[in-house]
Amino acid sequence: MDAPEYKSRHSKEPLRRRGHSIPALHEFMFSLNIASAFAYALLVYVSRSQASWTPLNDSTYYFLRSAFQINDLLHLPSTNPVSTDTVARDYLSRWSQAGEEFLVLITVFGVAALVSLLLRLTAGTSAYRVVLRRVAGLSALFGVPFCYLYVSKRTWNWASEPFSMRHYTFWQSAPPIVFAGEILCVGILFAIYRKRSIPTWTSGVFLLVHYAFWVLVLWSEVRINLYRLYAPHLLLLFFPLSGIVWLLYVRGSVARTAATWDHARAGKWTQATTIIAIAVLLYIWLPSKGYDFSHPKNLNSLMIQMSRGRCRGSCPSYTLAIHGNGSVEYVGVRYVKVQGSETSAVSPDQVIELLQKLDQAHFSSLEDRAFSWCFDAGSVSVSVSADGKTKRVVSDDSCTGAKSGLQAQFVKSAAEIDTMVGSDRWVSCDGPCRN
Questions:
Q1: What is the average per-residue pLDDT within 331-353?
Q2: Number of H helices, E strands in the chain
Q3: Domain span including residue 195
């Protein structure tokens, strides 16, 4: 009597595992689809912000700063294209793109791990089943298109040049029109489904046309910095896959065998994975810890150096060095009134005030490799040394990103050094400056 019972009990184990595999895969793909939709929309937003004539925010800076942090962890070569020693800009190597690709993938899987944990914490509840049956179905169909359209609407008039403005509105373009038509079709199909079943070929044709259209629309180049990113294409693969897995999940047979899975709570491995993912996201997205230059322990060890590099024109090229005791050293190089060395002095209180302004511009935590830059423009660098610590930041002095962004604040702080020292007496010429 015991042997048949033992055999029957163990023969059900493979069936139970098969029943668990689809719900587990559905949770995973739903989490990935949600994370991918937000990540793809973020990438479109960042790329359009960088391509716009005047960026409205620092989104590109924050993205590239995190990407360079990954490059540093992987010991990949990445340098600042801007230098005060030369006019020409150095192109970033292809290896620098690896940080951007890894940043996208790490962010997606980190957010997906968090969504998956939230699902496991609600397992067994009615909200959990509603999310996996209805919300997951809608997100599998419209999650990525909706996020893309939302970002496209926000960035519609972000032209890369003043004369490249579109002559038609966002709502007159094809994607929002098709999206509205699909919403109407889904509503009609749902109304029919409540009264009678819908043929499989009807839903199949709809899904095929739907995914084919949106993949073609979204399969465009996403460029941040100089090179095309390939990670967004991988994100788009999760879009149709999540729909296929959702269809498998809502089948009646799978739903019945998944009853025990619905009540399984988040295990230790799920919690540990989510904690690690969140820690990694915080590490790569948050800026490195800066330090306060405005309160040096040894004022005599302090030196602030500001240099301006030449451009394809008559941009002045010179260097200012301010010591902790207030002494100032000037060295003129090209296109300045005074070529050679001059000395002056400012008060120690002015030096501390200048350090405070640099701290307000987050000088110690700036990542100049993530700054905007143009060809053939001038450059400016600021270096601060105090108490054995040295920080140097180099920037293009014309293309400075968002008007109120971190790079613009830095360039403004460099200009305040000129104002405090009064460098116009050595730099500004009565007429054209001699080379």
A1: 92
A2: 14, 8
A3: 14-285
